[in-house]
Amino acid sequence: MKYVILFLLFGAHSCYAQHTIQLSKDTISPNATLEDVSWIAGHWRGEALGGIAEEIWSPPMGGSMMFSFRLLHDDEVTFYEFGHIKQHKNTLILQLKHFDGKLKGWEAQDDTVDFKLVKLEKDIVYFEGLTMEKTTTDVLKVYVLVEEESEQRELLFTYTNYQQ
User: Fold this and answer.
1) 118 neighbors 29 (Cβ within 8 angstroms)
2) Helices H, strands E: what count in the chain?
3) Could you say which DSSP state residue 130 is in?
4) What is the DSSP pairing of strand 42-48 with strand 124-127?
5) CB 133 within 8 A of CB 122
6) How far apart, in Å, are the Cα atoms of 34 and each of 61, 85, 138?
7) What mean pLDDT is predicted for residues 14-30?
8) Residues 59-85: pLDDT tens digits?
9) What whole-number distance in Å separates Cα of residue 82 and Cα of residue 162?
10) Count of CB atoms within 10 A of residue 27's CB?
11) 66 forms bridges with which residues in the sheet?
12) Closest CA relative to residue 54, chosen from 64, 66, 65, 42
């Protein structure tokens, strides 16, 4: 997977505490609504993967919260992610697609990278392999589980509320 390779090539900050979790076998995602994660909405920016990372999340509307992500190195886009958290039946799912700096897609046209909802707490949402936590009104932490040579580790993205 290209995105795992890029994460590792750019030397992201690695976390040793386990913040990401998985659904137990034969367990379904809990009931949730987009209002439960509406606190993610905003314009977030921080240093990550050896460059500047930026995420922009829209408020809930039309059954989803859309987002865009970009990573810049030396003032050039390395890659993008576009996606959404979508209301799916009585729960939520986070889906995304990756694109290089010239918008060439990494996944097949009809494929997405999907993260099922595992658990919700106040200002923390746990998807399989991806956790988002709003630690203050101006700080959002995103933990992503990646695999390197058959070993898994977490990467931490720490964003602050970006005001132009």
Assistant:
1) yes
2) 1, 11
3) E
4) unpaired
5) no
6) 9, 8, 20
7) 77
8) 999 999 999 999 999 999 999 999 999
9) 19
10) 10
11) 84
12) 42
Question: Which residue type does 43 have?
Answer: H
What would the pLDDT profile of 112-151 be if each residue is shown by its tens digit?
Answer: 999 999 999 999 999 999 999 999 999 999 999 888 778 8
Tokens 């070993």: give the residue: 151
The CATH class that applies to domain 2-161 reads: mainly beta
Distance of alpha carbon 125 from the chain centroid: 11
Assigned token pair, 52: 């500047």
Helix (H) / strand (E) containing 70:
strand 64-73
* Cross-strand partners of 48: 51
* pLDDT exceeds 80 at position 6: no
- Closest Cα to residue 23, out of 119, 96, 98? 119
Of 138, 152, 161, nearest to 54 by C-alpha is 161
Which amino acid is it at 2?
Answer: K
pTM over 0.90: no
